[in-house]
Design a protein that fits this description.
This protein is an alpha+beta fold. It contains three helices and seven strands; from the N terminus they run E-H-H-E-E-E-E-E-E-H. A seven-stranded antiparallel β-sheet has the order 1-7-6-5-4-3-2, covered by helices on one side.
Length: 142
């Protein structure tokens, strides 16, 4: 089986690192930006700590999809590493790493790396999802 390359995305936000990190770990903030396209986050449960768990439920036209996982690495304002499992595809556990990099003038750069995709279609679908969500995050952080 051919190994699928990781998905890597970077974004820069005009906010301090603590605000950007909080957007990824505060359930109320996640509900505001995480869902791409026509999806709406209906549940965001986050135990934001090392070995803590999270669950994010999104809906669109009464269809419900859920992501859940555990924090493998939790370094406040620096790095998050967590597993990512869709309820509809529980045999494929993905790994997400998000590095938060402090820049001058109170800017923050994030680098998201997601790996473990079963195929390129799955990776490309995640790219679309992250791109939409991160656009929502940019609006939230204005």
């Amino acid at each position: 089986m051919k190994k699928v390359k990781a998905l890597v995305l970077t974004r820069t936000y005009l906010k301090p690192i603590s605000k950007v990190f909080d957007a990824f770990t505060n359930p109320a903030n996640l509900k505001e930006w995480f869902a791409p396209g026509g999806l709406i986050v209906t549940i965001a449960e986050v135990n934001a700590r090392q070995s803590g768990a999270y669950r994010i439920e999104m809906t669109e036209d009464k269809k419900k999809i859920t992501i859940r996982g555990k924090y493998i690495e939790f370094k406040k304002n620096s790095r998050l590493m967590f597993t990512w499992v869709w309820d509809f595809d529980p045999e494929h556990e993905l790994l997400v790493t998000i590095d938060f990099i402090k820049l001058e003038d109170r800017k923050t750069k994030i680098k998201i790396s997601q790996r473990g995709f079963p195929n390129t279609e799955s990776r490309d679908n995640h790219r679309v999802g992250w791109t939409g969500g991160l656009s929502n995050l940019a609006k939230l952080l204005k």
